[in-house]
Amino acid sequence: MIPSPDGSPVPPHLTKALDYHAVEIAKLLHQALEASRCTSTPPDHNLLEHTRLVGYASSDLLRYAKLLCGLQAVQMQAIGYSTTAVARYLQIPVADVPQLATEEARQLFAGLINSPDPHHDSCAHALGRSIASWESADRDRTEVALAALFHNPDDPDSLRHLPTRLQDAVQEVAKALDTVAT
Predict the structure, then answer these.
(1) What is the DSSP code string of 15-43?
(2) Which residues have C-beta within 8 Å of that of residue 121, sequence separation ≥ 6?
(3) pLDDT tens-digit series, residues 101-124
């Protein structure tokens, strides 16, 4: 979370951007796992195909993660953070901040906040506009699946941040996953 210098709440466009990227990254992780399983088990053993398909998914994952970090950098710059502060919060060298705060990240940010597109119909700006209006059940499904996989069942507060309906869904999915694992 990016601390706001004036204590303002997190803008909705940032949470929507994170939601969108988390869903897309989860899909790509699934594609990589699926490709790996399909190409590494009989009768489809094929190292070349495994390398190709997992490589595609991995490079797409990297692109989404870098764009999300770039968006965070641009947002921090927009609210007045110095390059040093951006680097500190993103845990990168100061010299790497410009590599994250790319033109694509700036166009995505402009689309998210509905600023004019100086590049006239850039893909990143259009994606930002689309994300800003995005309302999807994919976000809840993704959060439930990830929470079921990674929450600490021994910590009664581990799901407290979720709405009750999602807490219940996480518990159900976690039970189903436990039966698969045994």
Answers:
(1) HHHHHHHHHHHHHHHHHHHHHHHHHHSTT
(2) none
(3) 999 999 999 999 989 887 777 899
